[in-house]
Design goal:
Length: about 475
């Protein structure tokens, strides 16, 4: 009897731990356009830190839209970008219509990742920072100011284990979500950071994923952006800008600001208080890098450059001044990127490219300096290495996307033999990757039927037309 009991205990100990079934309650989902839909608010529990015994449990939440099919397939889980975006919040926008259309294939899950919106822990920061206005922006001072605010936030939220805010834990959460739903597999539908999380899930839990739709690809080692990608997009913008040698103008302005920083008096419209701000080369580089999201943001770049060439430095002050102060990002947002980190080879490449490109490394501010603001668990080289996966994938890129360039999708496609790449010619980051043409949804449906997409390129009309 004693041996029988001992063997039984050994068998139980060897079994994998399965997540408890998800809990559901009725929920009325309301989209931003006023549409409402009866849905379900679901929740399930996961360990906060799977590397620590007796870690506390977190409650993660999602909204489930039931499938319209009599025989639904695998659940489709929407993963927002950021990191720090809410899946529930994102599907209240124009993406709601896409989510509704995809219900013909299976339940659609609007998922809040750990530390975001309805999911625990609360990682929101209220701590403010300010970079001294009396000197041009410098990488060290900017990063240190935000890092200090992040440290103060982490101290206030002392119960949050920031070393557990990383993408590998997020991937394990998705596997637990699958089990909590009682699903054999999941279909992942992600954008930007959501693609980074999807790739980690394919790496560490391949058995859990049936197929993926990934838009705006952030590959395993793409957390830190390449200066050459920013330069390439600047050159494309210059080509589109009529009658203007935009690159030469930017170069001239950067040289002038480096040699002679400009003082601009800015007045707070709410209280009338005024202060002098000094702006230099990095201030303009950061402003231009922030504009390189897509046509909706960089469309104003030629006008800004023209104003600066005419000596209207107030235009720079209005654009750059707001970046000198603010509220610290959430701990989740900072910790996830710090934990994904950067390989040694990419570090060297960024440093070399920064010396020969107009905007240098401004796109990555305030990283890596901000990472000094909290404890985090940095991924290893295996996490950032190439992904080899046979899982079917639809990769979506925009040619004018300044955050996730099409070449990143191509690099991923080379190691995913069952991947198809759809390029949206003229699309920037975020919404345009899903909403700029009805052909995108058609391609997504074709892919979910297990078919080959009919066209690899969708060309959008020029901005302001169509």
């Amino acid at each position: 009897m004693r041996w029988t009991l001992r063997i039984a205990l050994l068998v139980v100990a060897a079994l994998p731990l399965f997540a408890a079934p998800a809990k559901f309650e009725p929920y009325v989902f309301k989209a931003q356009d006023g549409q409402t839909l009866d849905a379900e608010l679901g929740s399930f529990s996961v360990p906060e830190n799977r590397t620590k015994p007796n870690s506390r449990q977190l409650t993660l939440r999602f909204v489930r839209f039931k499938s319209t099919s009599a025989k639904p397939g695998h659940p489709i889980v929407y993963l927002a970008g950021g990191p720090g975006g809410s899946g529930i919040g994102a599907l209240t926008t124009g993406r709601f219509a896409i989510a509704m259309a995809l219900r013909e294939f299976g339940d659609v899950i609007a998922y809040d990742q750990r530390g975001i919106n309805r999911s625990e822990p609360d990682t929101r920061c209220t701590e403010e920072y300010m970079v001294a206005p009396g000197a041009p922006l410098e990488r060290a001072s900017f990063g240190a100011a935000i890092a200090d605010a992040v440290r103060r936030c982490a101290s206030r939220l002392s119960t949050v284990d920031t070393t557990a805010l990383n993408t590998r834990e997020g991937a394990a959460d998705l596997n637990d979500l699958r089990q909590a739903l009682g699903a054999q597999k999941l279909i992942l539908w992600g954008i930007s950071y959501g693609t980074h999380l999807s790739i980690a899930t394919l790496r560490y839990h391949p058995e859990a994923i049936d197929r993926v739709i990934l838009a705006g690809i952030e590959g395993p080692d793409d957390t830190y952006k390449l200066p050459s990608d920013q330069q390439t997009l600047l050159e494309e913008i210059a080509r589109l800008a009529p009658n203007r040698d935009l690159l030469a103008s930017i170069n001239k302005l950067l040289r002038e600001l480096e040699a002679r920083p400009k003082t601009v008096t800015l007045t707070d419209p709410l209280n009338g208080a005024s202060a002098d701000f000094v702006f230099g080369k990095l201030d303009l580089q950061r402003v231009l890098a922030d504009m390189l999201v897509g046509p909706d943001t960089f469309g104003a770049m030629p006008d800004l450059i023209a104003r600066l060439e005419q000596g209207d430095w107030t235009a720079l002050g209005l654009a750059a001044g707001r970046g000198r102060f603010g509220t610290a990002p959430s701990l989740m947002s900072i910790a996830m990127d710090c934990a994904s980190g950067i390989s040694a080879a990419r570090t060297q490449r960024i440093a070399a490219e920064a010396k020969t490109t107009l905007l240098g490394d401004a796109i990555n501010l305030p990283f890596p300096e901000v990472c000094a603001g909290l404890k985090f668990s940095e991924a290893d080289d295996a996490f950032r290495g190439p992904l080899n996966s046979n899982v079917p994938a639809l990769l979506i890129s925009g040619t004018l996307d300044g955050r996730t360039r099409p070449r990143q999708a191509e690099e991923l496609r080379m190691t995913m033999p069952n991947a198809q790449h759809l390029v949206i010619v003229g699309a920037g980051h975020s919404d345009p990757l899903f909403l700029s043409s009805p052909k995108i949804l058609d391609a997504m449906k074709t892919f979910l039927r297990g078919e080959t997409i009919r066209e690899r390129y969708i060309e959008l009309p020029p901005r302001g037309q169509g």
